[in-house]
């Protein structure tokens, strides 16, 4: 109930746990991005399911998993329950029909090129468990690897990263080194677009390149920026 200027409003919680909780997170890292924010950033990017996608700092795998869910048209709430399902006056048969309809629109696994890397082998194990719980383990390749070792001969791909920043896990010197190394690794990938989320206002200087576009967002209560670097466009017949 909320009261404003002598007017009371009674609200009913039909959801239970927050909607951003998809229900597939078996475990999480030290500072994970919310699932709905990861999905929104993917939609803001120029990634399509026929393009390769890499998250070089994947942590618990949220970006990779959300990309696979989007590509395969897997409904975001399919792996969770809602508070209203326990109400006696809610038609259980209707809920079951809606879930079945959502499942029938799904696309099969096996045609995606999504990779997640992290320096921490424990987080790779967590990411794999989460992908299994989400039903997209076949769509993602997870591997323990340093960002500095990232190499690819593919073209027209997308890199999305939520690297550690000031409020997340690393001190300032370590952050500066990481962002410098990130720039050195990413710059040669001319046809790849890069989308990097951080609260560090010195990111562009440390990365070594001004972003083509910057969006202000909030990761929970923390103000962050999404730095967007657009790759050179090469038509398929030129590849």
Task: Provide key terms for this protein.
globular, 6 helices, alpha/beta, Rossmann fold, 18% strand, 9 strands, two-stranded antiparallel ribbon, 239 residues, seven-stranded mixed beta sheet
The total strand number stands at 9
Strand content: 15-25%
Order of helices and strands: EEHEHHEHEEHEHEE
Number of helices: 6
Helix content: 25-40%
How is the largest sheet built, in terms of strand order? 5-4-3-6-7-9-8
CATH architecture: 3-Layer(aba) Sandwich
Q: Identify low-pLDDT runs.
A: none
pLDDT average, as an integer? Answer: 89
Shape: globular
Structural class: alpha/beta
Q: Looking at this structure, what is the CATH superfamily?
A: Vaccinia Virus protein VP39
Tell me the domain tally.
Answer: 1
Brief overview:
The chain is an alpha/beta fold and 239 residues long.
Would you kindly provide a written description of the structure presented here, covering whatever features stand out?
The protein has 239 residues and is an alpha/beta fold. The protein has a single domain, classed as 3-Layer(aba) Sandwich (Rossmann fold), CATH 3.40.50. It has a 7-stranded mixed beta sheet, covered by helices on one side. It has a two-stranded antiparallel sheet with strand order 1-2. Strand 8 and strand 9 form a beta hairpin. The longest helix has 15 residues. The chain is globular, with a radius of gyration of 20 Å. The N and C termini lie far apart (60 Å).
